[in-house]
Amino acid sequence: MSKKTLPTDVWFFVGHSIGVTLLGIHTLEAAYFGLPADQRGRLFIVVNGDNRRLYDDLLTQYPHITLVTVSKKSLGTIASIVWNGFGRRQIVLHPLSFGSVNLIHAWMTRIITLLNPQSRSIIFGEHTWRNGFFFTTILKRNLEQSIFTSQEEAIQSTGITPRAHTPQLLFAHGEPIVQLHQQSYILVHPFAASISRSLPPARWQELINWLRSTYPHYSVVISGGPADRAAALALIPKNHTEVYFSQDICRSFLDSFSLSARAALFVGVDTGPTHIAAHVGALTIVVGNNSNPCWLPYYNPTVTVLMNLSVCTCQGDKTGNCFEYEDGVKYYRCMYRIPQEEIKEAISKKLS
């Protein structure tokens, strides 16, 4: 079989975050649709076992992507796939990472690419002996460039010209979300894994009050997970109706995609749900921070990212004296110093 007609399988290893998961799907499809039709092989996304349920739910929308979980049976699974992959080229991609690659992932990568000299494995990182042993290609991190752009460049390094592909996701939703979709609503996501990557609660409360007063024909949905319920309910003004908490509307993980896709506008901090909104092409405003700018969702052309870079001391690699304090709580300075009026002005421009 000639090199030109060799089927190509593409693998992507992810960790725990939804942002990396969406990155993986984007990257797999960009590589897949960049190949000539007669060279398109199989697509695999490799995840940690404790995330299986989340990925099972999401990947029902991507039947052409095979889920492989890291568990005690992983090596047997990989061996079986590799055994059935003779005569196929393997491309293995790892996301841009600040830490070292999981050793199990590294060994799995080595096994996957071992049988065919045309196979390639790509990592962003340092040129160390360990990386050199496990990976055929080591690319330098670009801390200012979108991670999605970096991954497309990784695909190009294998000789594939990536082609962006926006999937038409199919959603199954219950009655509460159907009822909400009969209204126009703004989705607000104020919660991050670390409170430092958000704004003080009083500012979100004031913003929600302003939205209901200024745009009374829009409902407001506060987005968050089960652990955010108390904080979300505290943001709902007592004198306003038509303000909801997403957990009272969404019955499944896929509902959150539907909720974002149908919103008139998404306003939130840079975290997983923001990447969901950007992934489905929602009109989006991100209250961002400069501690890790390569993760910001610039891949969605409708996204507006707000940061006050004039006061920023972040180094772009999670270092720098970056914080301001309010009531003993630290916040990224480049977020904290975004004027409230600037957020409102951005919202008004989007809704116009």
Keywords:
352 residues; alpha/beta; 6-stranded parallel beta sheet; single chain; 13 helices
What would you say about this model in short?
The protein is built from 13 helices and 14 strands. With 352 residues, the chain is of the alpha/beta class.
Task: Report on this structure.
- The protein is 35% helix and 19% strand.
- By secondary structure, it is α/β, with parallel strands linked by helices.
- Strand 13 (323-326) and strand 14 form a beta hairpin.
- It starts with 7 loop residues before the first strand and ends with a helix.
- The protein has 13 helices and 14 strands.
- The protein is globular and about 65 Å long.
- Helix 1 packs parallel to helix 6 (147-156).
- The chain has helices at residues 18-34, 52-59, 74-83, 103-113, 129-134, 147-156, 175-180, 201-214, 229-235, 253-261, 272-279, 333-336, 340-351; strands at residues 8-13, 40-48, 65-70, 89-93, 120-124, 137-139, 185-189, 219-222, 243-245, 265-269, 284-287, 303-306, 323-326, 329-332.
- The strands form 3 sheets. The chain has a 6-stranded parallel sheet with strand order 3-2-1-4-5-6, with helices on both faces. It has a 6-stranded parallel sheet with strand order 9-8-7-10-11-12, with helices on both faces. A two-stranded antiparallel ribbon has the order 13-14.
